[in-house]
Write a structure and sequence with these properties.
Blueprint (H helix, E strand, L loop, with lengths): L12 E8 L4 E5 L3 E6 L13 E7 L2 E6 L1 H4 L11 E6 L9 E6 L4 E6 L13 E7 L2 E6 L1 H10 L4
Parallel strand pairs: 5-7
Antiparallel strand pairs: 1-2, 1-8, 3-6, 4-5, 6-7, 9-10
Pfam families: CheW
Protein name: Putative chemosensory signal transduction system protein ChpC
Organism: Azotobacter chroococcum NCIMB 8003
């Protein structure tokens, strides 16, 4: 049976971004991402959780830089062509408007049908769904849960 991701908005297609990580690809609506920036000037501190890589500067702000792989229970690799995706925060916290996520390459924009078929893949923590695309499986991340992970650790 072909299961599809629900489409509560009634929109038939949307522009999305494929965000390459070390061990998976994330799929997000392009409006969730404020900007893609180079990986540079990360300020680290002792005793950070392994999924929090430090802080990165963006538009006169210091943003927490997260590793999705490590937050999902895996390693936090730094590849040959790292980039950073700056996300709009979704948790409604007045002092947290943006978060940064380490990428392992250059994102790619694509138009996707709003009713993507689900992929038969086990989900890692912080993943809402896996969907089948023409060139493989992409994961839909739970950005609110990622932000909550920061809050639970007392970091925001």
């Amino acid at each position: 049976m072909n299961q599809a991701v629900a489409n509560p908005t009634g929109v038939d297609s949307l522009t999305a971004l494929l965000l390459p990580l070390a061990d998976r690809t994330l799929l997000l609506p392009n409006v969730a991402v404020a900007e893609i920036i180079p990986y540079r000037g990360v300020q680290t501190a002792p005793d950070l959780p392994p999924w929090l890589l430090g802080q990165i500067g963006w538009r006169d702000l210091r943003l927490p830089l997260l590793s999705f792989e490590a937050a999902s229970g895996g390693p936090a690799p730094l590849g040959a062509t790292p980039r950073v995706a700056v996300f709009n925060a979704l948790g409604g916290r007045p002092r947290v408007k943006f978060l940064a996520l380490l990428l392992q390459g250059i994102p790619r924009a694509l138009k996707v049908d709003a009713r993507l078929p689900r992929a038969d893949a086990a989900l890692a923590p912080l993943e809402l769904a896996a969907v089948q695309l023409e060139d493989g499986v992409a994961r839909i991340p739970d950005l609110q849960a990622l932000e909550q992970k920061l809050a639970d650790a007392g970091l925001i």
